[in-house]
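User: Hey, my collaborator sent me this sequence without any context and asked if I could get a structure. I don't really work with proteins. Can you help?
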Amino acid sequence: MSLFSRLFGGGGKSEAPAASAPPEVYKDFEIFVEPQSEGGQYRVCARIEKELGGERRSHRMVRADTLASLDDARAMSLAKARQVIDEQGEALFR
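Assistant: No problem. I've predicted the 3D structure and written it out in structure-token form, which is a compact way to encode the shape of the chain:
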């Protein structure tokens, strides 16, 4: 990152997560927990995937919630992804 990017905020992009863990299977959905580093905290994010009609479908869930601990952000991302699956099921991909 250049000096000017650091001084002036670097364009507002958040950093990508480090290595991601294997997905958790929940009600035949795969949850990839992917919190994003942002301003010294971690934004709650996850990718939810499922095979439907022979096609792999994916939904990226990004929440406004931020947490100081990466472990807390991972736990919250998983909990929120499960909640979305419980509430929306396959309608998530429409």
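In plain terms: Helices lie at 3-7, 70-88. You can pass these tokens on to your collaborator as they are.
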